[in-house]
Amino acid sequence: MDNATRLQYLEAMGIDVWLPRVSGNDEQAAVIEDSWETLQAEVMGCLLCGLCETRNQPVFGSGNKNADWVFLGEAPGQSEDQQGLPFVGNAGQLLTEMLRAIDLDREQVFIANILKCHPPANRDPKPSEIETCKPYLLRQLALIKPKIIVALGRVSAQTLLDTDAPIGKLRGKIHALNETPVVVVYHPAHLLRAPLDKRKAWADLKLAVQTVKNIKG
Ligand code: URA
After folding, report:
1. 22: CA distance to ligand 1 center in Å?
2. Which atom of ligand 1 is found nearest the CA of 91?
3. Is 81 touching ligand 1 by the criterion CB < 6 Å?
4. Is the CB of 58 under 6 A from ligand 1?
């Protein structure tokens, strides 16, 4: 990632970047570096919202830190909260099958959620919780530098794309987050309830595959 893009991410996270008053390339070299270890430690000890009082443990995400593909769900469910890993329940099994359908496995990709902590009784994330947690996700994305982000479900898509548009309007298109393509796919939990939508999900996964193929390098 070039420094201009890194600056955009940092700005979106509300992090002030102080640059020394020097000229040319030296200025760009001064952009602060984040690290996976720092970020993971911050997430695992996070007390920034009320979910820290009810969670069992934060779910940082799992998979390849250098993945081309990032899959983002909404928030850990109860099983994820217990195991500390994303998508380990029934929806997770379907996600594994969706990955297999496009020749990927869970070790190749990175899987995470918009919220790192389980909302009690599986309620929807509150806007304030999303705002508080989003910077962690943006920092994960800045470190991974994926070729594509797959937003699983409405909450993930609306958060990443900063829109209120319904998922039916967001799927089927290529969006972008700071120049990284974003494809919206129905959440596997929705597909378990509405199997007729699997056809659309398959079309969206194929769109994502084609999008990655079209990226040079
Ligand atoms: N649903 C999600 O959105 N994320 C998980 O990790 C599990 C279920």
Report:
1. 46
2. 8
3. no
4. no
Q: What gap in Å lies between CA 217 and CA 144, rounded to an integer?
A: 16
Residue 113 Cα to ligand 1 midpoint, Å, equals 7
Atom 7, ligand 1: residue with shortest CA distance? 87
The mean pLDDT of the chain is 90
Ligand 1 within 6 A of 74 CB? yes
State the Cα–Cα distance between residues 176 and 119, nearest whole angstrom. 28
**What are the sequence ranges of the domains in the chain?**
3-216
| Exposed/middle/buried for residue 61 (C-beta within 10 Å: 0-12, 13-18, 19+) | buried
Q: What is the pTM of this model?
A: 0.87
According to CATH, what is the number of the domain 3-216?
Answer: 3.40.470.10
Q: Could you give the CA distance from residue 159 to residue 156 in angstroms, rounded to a whole number?
A: 5
**What whole-number distance in Å separates Cα of residue 136 and Cα of residue 116?**
9
Beta pairing, strands 148-152 & 62-63: unpaired
Q: Locate the ligand 1 atom nearest the alpha carbon of residue 79 and give its number.
A: 7
Q: CA distances (Å), 191 to each of 92, 93, 152, 188, in order? A: 11, 12, 11, 5
pLDDT over threshold 80, residue 27: no
Strands annotated E in the chain: 62-63, 69-73, 110-113, 148-152, 174-177, 180-185
The dihedrals phi and psi of 112, each to the nearest 5 degrees, come to -150, -175
pLDDT tens for residues 94-111?
999 999 999 999 999 999
Q: How many residues does the chain have?
A: 217
Does residue 57 contact residue 81 with C-beta atoms inside 8 Å? yes
